[in-house]
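Hi V.,

You were right to ask for the full record rather than a summary. Here it is.
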Amino acid sequence: MNVFDEKNMSSSSVDFDQAISKAQSSVAVWEALGAFSKAVVGHKLFTVMTVDIAAGLARRAYTDDPLNYPVSGTKPIHHDQWFDIVHGKKQNFVANTIADIAKVFPDFELIRSLGCGSVVNLPVVLQGELVATINMLDAEHHYTPERVAATETMLTIPSKLCYLLAKQFDTRSGIPD
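Predicted structure:
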């Protein structure tokens, strides 16, 4: 989809609103955001990581590829270039080549095997703290400056809404943050 196609973007916004309004689980919430982000900027792989900075842990809360990137337990947060950008500056991390991805993601070979060579990680920040990242991956050079700008302007608020709604569903179900 063309990032600048206003008619389709309007339709995607309506679809997202309807999906969120009907959601009965955190999975449904993340699926709605995944579909909306695919319409806005495109992706081959979509995951959500929640972050507990105080504990130094991250948890994959959602994936659209459970075979290769399952929802599972926690993993330690690494303080590196990615962390400085996403947590410190609270900005998108963007890498548009597999070589750049390899600098910060040890699973770059798996990423490459899935036909992905670019990534944008959108930080979800509430009350000044990083609480999650929305992770979108696609072919090399996919995340152009226009797509990155669309990520920031069109997905930031929906991502915050989805985080809060998913957290509400997970709390009811006893799933940890």
